[in-house]
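We now fix the convention by which a protein and its fold are recorded. Think of the row as the fold of the chain written in a discrete alphabet. Here is one such record, which you should read through line by line.
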Amino acid sequence: MTALVILFFVAVWAGIQNALAGGGTFLTLPALMLTGMTALSANITSTVALFPGQVTSSWGGRSHVAGAGGLSFRALVIISLVGGVIGAILLLVTPSDIFKSLVPWLVLFATGVFAYGSFVPRKADHPPVLGKAGAGAAQFGISVYGGYFGGGIGFLMLAALTAAGLTIRNANATKNVLAGVMNASAVAIFVFSPQMQWRQAAIACVGAAIGGVIGGHMVTRVNQKVLRATAVLIGIALTIGLFVRAP
């Protein structure tokens, strides 16, 4: 019961974190594992629990979505759906022990991507470096990774979409919608998995939804760099802890 109470408040924090700066997965993953779940179950349950918050955040910026690199927005959606399904299937066929050994590396990669995207300056205007094939391949690869694990996909897509010629504003709105799309395809598969833990998912979902509302009201009052730095520090601590626990 104590672990479930902790999970609820951590999920509230994750909802606030995602609404303001991103990185909520770094919080929910260890909190779910604290309830006695395997890393595989925690990853699947976290994806489902945080999905409603992604829907609301993507809905708010839907008017600014756009195609990139010569690909229409519809094409990017289809690519994201297909990649998300493939990633989710790959996750479900990965034995729990193998996934447990992969998690420290996945979290390390996600933390690195998150840190780079948070603190390395990006130019608002630059010539496109990704054409149609490059933009499609990049989005497909990100979508497969997103369906499999998902940490850092926001910044991966932001980098790919801006490299394909979108402005930061359009790229941010587009990546929010595409992240929701690829996770929708993963969630549609995960809900039928025996690894899915519904009680923990419900608790985390309610907490994250409350946090999302709170975060929406705090968006103009909170220093996002501080929040992102906090998420990076949590990611580093989680990475170290996972490597220490790894067999």
